[in-house]
Write a structure and sequence with these properties.
By secondary structure, the chain is mainly alpha-helical. It contains six helices and two strands.
Length: 129
Amino acid sequence: MSLSFQVKLLRVLQEGEVRPVGSTRAVPVPVDVRVIAATHRDLEREVEAGRFREHLYYRIAIATLSMPPLRERGGDLVPIAQKLLQDIAGQVPQRRARAFAGNALAVQLSYPWPGNIRELRNETPGRWR
């Protein structure tokens, strides 16, 4: 998010109003918003480096949740993979969800998954044969 957009977002959060683009009204429109944000970046480091506004960070970092990458959550991989398999199989009505073949789960557990769950979901079935 650009620094200029961060200023605009901070203003909306602090003042609780927006001025719609292209509006002919001189009066701002009141808004009541909540922000839920996710990032793979360390925002504290981004603040230190000057790439993220400190005031905005403290405005949105009311409650933070750290989610380790999938490769660090080996115990989560199998149930997530099985759920994704069921979901994908459910998109084709004439097929029922099948179990993973052979050593597919062992191979999945040994892979580092740099793309996390998105990569797991989009992985081609042929890779695990």
